[in-house]
Structures are given as C-alpha cells and as structure tokens.
Design the sequence.
C-alpha cells in the first residue's frame, strides 16, 4: 500500500484524523479572525483538494457534477438568492442590529457607491472567491467532513450544517457581531439548500453569487444601507 493510500485510509476511517483535519481548519479560520491572514479560503481550498485527493474521492462526491437540469437549478438558485437577500435586508439585519445594538459594518465597501470600477471588482470577487471558493470550502469540503466525523444520518447532517456555517460566519467577522450572526443564518440556508438538493453544489454557488451581486448592486446604487 502506498503512503498516499495509508494516509487516505486514516482520513476516511479514523475519526481522530478527521478531527485533527478540522482542528487545522479552525486554526486557519482563527488566523483570519485575528487578521493575520486576509481570508482563510485561500488556504482552505487547497487543503480541501488535498484531502479529497488523499482519500481518493472525486469532486462529484461534494457536488461538482453536471446537474440533471441546469435551468431548474438556476431558477431555484435565483429564488433562494434573491429571496434570502431581500429577507435579510428588510427583516434579518434590522432585527439583529436591534438585538446586538451594533450596526452591520460595511466599511469595506465604502468605495462602492457610484463607482463602476469598484462594482466590477466586487462582482468579480463575488463569483470567484465568494460564490465558488467559499461554497467549495464551507459546503462542499467542511460540511461533508463534519458529517464524516459525526457519522451519517440526520444528526450528522445537522452538525455538518451548523459547524460549517459557524466557520463561514467567522470568516465574515470584519462585518461585526451583526454580520457574523447574519452570515451564520445565510450559511445555514445555503447548507440546508445544498443537502436538500442532494449535494448539488452548483445550486448554492449560484444562490450565493446572486445574493451577493444583488447586495452590491444596491450598495452601488446608494439604496443600501
């Protein structure tokens, strides 16, 4: 048995090794929270690819495969993305700001209102680093690794959804406490959609991208906050 197969077997079958893998993920996410690295995704994406390769799993296991119906996937993603973003803007964020007594920190996007170049930059980052990168990491990679360590079944899927959403939320700590809580809710919506669609990762990639794009368009137009 090759060294790769030995390590892959441990990562597949030994829960202590899976927990160790998740500890590394938490530490990397913590480095982002304390602002020692700009974003954990640039480290977590290669780690996820390495983990899949060592375990001998293809990307299809995490949902990177052709959906049975692209139009239905896009239509559902549009409903999820637009529906959630409007609900967030009109209800979730205002309620969270009332509860935490802390406004959502969107200072990172101060250059966006009225700036075509800033809008182009943020939309590019949305569909690459955020929509595809974060969904690959938090839903495709981490949710499934939480399920692996918790065992399959509904309990494992709930733990996977909550655990991956918590790390996703911490990745947005620059938005303040309200932002962390709002992104946890968004992460849970995306995780639930991913699992309900039988791990169709393209659905949540599109939904994530649509939701963020709508938010950036509203900021660009001066309609939000």
Sequence:
């Amino acid at each position: 048995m090759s060294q790769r197969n030995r390590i892959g077997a441990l990562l597949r079958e030994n829960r202590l090794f899976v927990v160790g893998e998740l500890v590394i993920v938490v530490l990397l996410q913590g480095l982002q929270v304390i602002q020692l690295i700009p974003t954990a995704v640039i480290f977590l994406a290669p780690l996820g690819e390495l983990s899949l390769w060592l375990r001998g799993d293809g990307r299809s296991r995490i949902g990177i495969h052709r959906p049975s119906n692209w139009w239905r996937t896009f239509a559902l993603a549009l409903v999820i993305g637009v529906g959630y973003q409007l609900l967030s803007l009109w209800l979730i964020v205002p309620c969270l700001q009332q509860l935490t007594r802390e406004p959502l920190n969107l200072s990172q996007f101060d250059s966006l209102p009225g700036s075509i170049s800033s809008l182009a930059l943020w939309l590019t980052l949305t569909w690459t680093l955020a929509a595809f990168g974060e969904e690959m990491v938090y839903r495709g990679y981490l949710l499934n690794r939480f399920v692996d360590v918790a065992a399959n079944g509904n309990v494992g899927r709930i733990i996977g959804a909550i655990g991956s959403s918590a790390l996703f939320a911490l990745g947005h700590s620059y938005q303040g406490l309200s932002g962390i809580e709002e992104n946890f809710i968004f992460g849970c919506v995306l995780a639930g959609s991913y699992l309900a669609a039988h791990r169709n990762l393209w659905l949540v990639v599109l939904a994530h991208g649509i939701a963020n794009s709508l938010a950036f368009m509203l900021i660009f137009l001066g309609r939000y906050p």
In short: The mean pLDDT is 95. The two ends are 58 Å apart (CA to CA).
